[in-house]
Recover the amino acids of this structure.
């Protein structure tokens, strides 16, 4: 009976399809017409640069405002997502598969020789579909890679807010839920406030757009990062004052390290002479920053990310491993990504990278790893 109910809950409905397409339609229109800072991307192999309209924060605030007004007018339901979580999950997954198949076909047929659209075909269909063929495919002038990242982060917040609305509706709002929601809102709002920093990340600069990124952005981020909220909706957790304080400390430290490290890297790329912690930056080989957080560990930003992920799970207590899926997964992912980053940098910078490793011996966590 339970399995049959679970299976039936995964079957997409026209409602879930309409919700998903309406969300994407709104993002496409809002991202194109709302004002926002036009940020140049990294220099591509052919010397060209893409430009990104960073109006994600305004798009998000407007969307939330429209949903609140719609709920007040009894036009939309704030619990629509939490009521249809599994079918929205399957609908989004199917959408990701279809989109990446279309990207594969379009990439194979493309004759464009620009760095952003030139097809990179290995001949292995699975590999090309998984990792993608084109660097920056677009649809109706919308950069799909940047669009999908934005959709995933907004989707995470919308799921959380719907779960919160469901908890309030069922008179099941807890201190743990409030703490989790506050941490996630701060993190996601901060992401969109500094959205231009996303333009200098490895995913945007170097990863081609295939199933790995599309699935990661549209399915993995919103539906797995919100597991804690789903879990708290069905499980009551009472936290001591000491636990709340400790949880807040983990979040604050994680945020300071994560945001500080990323900001230093972004500012350095824009202006190599920008002061870091009040001093001129130290650089190896003219390219590798060894000041600030980047002199503590080679991937100090990953440490901040891991602490933030842990802070999202700590409000759930320690009675179940389920809410800790996100930080455990992230630990595995970031160690794997760190190894890929190390291999790329060793090949790119050669002896300069070897000198950098001697200067900054720790990978992520100083004196441990």
């Amino acid at each position: 009976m339970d399995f049959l109910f679970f299976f039936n809950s995964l079957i997409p409905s026209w409602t879930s399809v309409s919700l998903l397409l309406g969300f994407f339609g709104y993002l496409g229109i809002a991202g194109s017409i709302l004002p926002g800072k036009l940020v140049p991307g990294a220099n591509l192999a052919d010397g060209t640069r893409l430009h990104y309209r960073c109006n994600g924060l305004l798009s998000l605030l407007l969307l939330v405002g429209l949903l609140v007004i719609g709920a007040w007018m009894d036009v939309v339901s704030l619990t629509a997502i939490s009521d249809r979580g599994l079918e929205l999950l399957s609908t989004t997954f199917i959408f990701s598969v279809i989109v990446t198949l279309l990207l594969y076909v379009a990439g194979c047929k493309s004759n464009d020789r620009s760095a952003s659209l030139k097809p990179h075909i290995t001949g292995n269909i699975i590999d090309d579909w998984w990792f993608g063929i084109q660097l920056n495919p677009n649809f109706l002038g919308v950069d799909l890679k940047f669009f999908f990242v934005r959709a995933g982060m907004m989707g995470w917040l919308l799921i959380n807010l719907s779960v919160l609305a469901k908890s309030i509706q069922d008179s099941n709002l807890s201190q743990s839920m409030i703490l989790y929601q506050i941490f996630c809102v701060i993190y996601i709002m901060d992401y969109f406030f500094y959205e231009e920093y996303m333009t200098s990340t490895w995913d945007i600069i170097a990863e081609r757009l295939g199933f790995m990124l599309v699935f990661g952005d549209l399915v993995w981020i919103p539906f797995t990062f919100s597991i804690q909220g789903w879990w708290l909706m069905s499980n009551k957790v009472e936290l001591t004052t000491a636990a709340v304080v400790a949880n807040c400390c983990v979040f604050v430290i994680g945020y300071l390290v994560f945001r500080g490290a990323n900001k230093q890297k972004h500012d350095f790329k824009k202006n190599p002479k920008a002061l870091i912690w009040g001093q001129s930056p130290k650089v190896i080989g003219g390219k590798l920053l060894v000041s600030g957080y980047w002199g503590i560990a080679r991937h100090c930003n990953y440490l901040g990310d891991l602490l933030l992920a842990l802070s999202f799970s700590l409000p759930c207590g320690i009675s179940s491993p389920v809410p800790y899926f996100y930080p455990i997964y992230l630990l595995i992912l970031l160690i794997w990504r760190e190894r890929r980053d190390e291999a790329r940098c060793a090949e790119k910078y050669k002896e300069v990278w070897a000198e950098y490793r001697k200067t900054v011996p720790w990978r992520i966590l100083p004196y441990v790893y």
Q: What stands out?
A: The longest helix spans residues 241-270.
